[in-house]
């Protein structure tokens, strides 16, 4: 059997191996070193570097009449501050705007790699990265609630359902506890991961499907390869919308959780 990538693509559909990458540094193999410097981790480092450079450049010499770079940076910050932090959390949400903005642009930058040629995969399609983001949000959410209300009151407000009959509370309290401890951070991570994972698989199916059709002996099938590649382009545009939306949704849900920590009501 030929080891040609095109032949393999024609014979085997894309699977989990499409998300596995070896070390970029020759000689590093085995244990943690094999996965320490991969294509995915490199993309994360590039995301951090790009964002640091962009924002430092934009605010290096702030002006009353902003430059294009300063205007873009201020627009992103204003979007998160006014449409997410203030609208969801309230006036005190402004103090969370830097974290929410950082979260939004970092997720967005990592998502964009999924449609960038030669990169063509989002680090968030690996569950580890969304988990880290969700845990960071979860720890902040808990810390803010404890700081504002104290440990005892925060636990009570989180798991006790006001207005419910006393005899129902033994049923509701475990449900609320499960939601606070596990469900919220898990769904936050899984939503982002699942969308980026599915998007990558869809693009692979249409792209490699076109390759498989082109490698066939039939002229008719060769012609349908262009239809498959055309769908890959259409789905790339759709994926652009989804990756922006997921960055926004993750940030929006984070603000919602923070709002529940700072609010007086349950």
From TrEMBL:
<dbReference type="GO" id="GO:0046933">
    <property type="term" value="F:proton-transporting ATP synthase activity, rotational mechanism"/>
</dbReference>
<keyword id="KW-1003">Cell membrane</keyword>
<comment type="similarity">
    <text>Belongs to the ATPase A chain family.</text>
</comment>
<dbReference type="InterPro" id="IPR035908">
    <property type="entry name" value="F0_ATP_A_sf"/>
</dbReference>
<keyword id="KW-0812">Transmembrane</keyword>
<dbReference type="Pfam" id="PF00119">
    <property type="entry name" value="ATP-synt_A"/>
</dbReference>
<feature type="transmembrane region" description="Helical">
    <location>
        <begin position="127"/>
        <end position="146"/>
    </location>
</feature>
<dbReference type="InterPro" id="IPR023011">
    <property type="entry name" value="ATP_synth_F0_asu_AS"/>
</dbReference>
<keyword id="KW-1133">Transmembrane helix</keyword>
<dbReference type="GO" id="GO:0045259">
    <property type="term" value="C:proton-transporting ATP synthase complex"/>
</dbReference>
<dbReference type="GO" id="GO:0005886">
    <property type="term" value="C:plasma membrane"/>
</dbReference>
<feature type="transmembrane region" description="Helical">
    <location>
        <begin position="192"/>
        <end position="214"/>
    </location>
</feature>
<keyword id="KW-0472">Membrane</keyword>
<keyword id="KW-0813">Transport</keyword>
<feature type="transmembrane region" description="Helical">
    <location>
        <begin position="96"/>
        <end position="115"/>
    </location>
</feature>
<feature type="transmembrane region" description="Helical">
    <location>
        <begin position="42"/>
        <end position="59"/>
    </location>
</feature>
<feature type="transmembrane region" description="Helical">
    <location>
        <begin position="226"/>
        <end position="250"/>
    </location>
</feature>
<keyword id="KW-0406">Ion transport</keyword>
<dbReference type="InterPro" id="IPR045083">
    <property type="entry name" value="ATP_synth_F0_asu_bact/mt"/>
</dbReference>
<comment type="function">
    <text>Key component of the proton channel; it plays a direct role in the translocation of protons across the membrane.</text>
</comment>
<dbReference type="InterPro" id="IPR000568">
    <property type="entry name" value="ATP_synth_F0_asu"/>
</dbReference>
<protein>
    <recommendedName>
        <fullName>ATP synthase subunit a</fullName>
    </recommendedName>
</protein>
<keyword id="KW-0375">Hydrogen ion transport</keyword>
<keyword id="KW-0066">ATP synthesis</keyword>
<keyword id="KW-0138">CF(0)</keyword>
